[in-house]
Write a structure and sequence with these properties.
Shape: globular
Largest sheet: 3 strands, antiparallel
Strand order of the largest sheet: 1-2-3
Number of strands: 3
Helix content: 25-40%
Oligomer: single chain
Structural class: alpha+beta
Order of helices and strands: EEEH
């Protein structure tokens, strides 16, 4: 997957959270960083597949995003 993934620990959830900012609402969690990354990659594939099935555009990966 070529989309940037943001991975962080959430004390509130007691889990690692992985987000794909370029795919709105695309995120997953897991008890380990490795599992959260695995889960979000699966969710991202499903996000893209669903968008295509619905005729929606799928953003091209931009690579490393820059934040202010």
């Amino acid at each position: 997957m070529k989309y940037e993934i943001i991975l962080y620990w959430s004390e509130e959830d007691g889990a690692y959270i992985a987000e794909v900012p370029e795919l709105a609402g695309c995120m997953a969690d897991g008890p380990t960083a490795k599992e959260a990354l695995h889960n979000v990659e699966q969710i991202a594939r499903e996000w893209i597949e669903t968008a295509r099935e619905l005729g929606r555009s799928v953003p091209e990966p931009k690579g490393r995003l820059r934040y202010a």
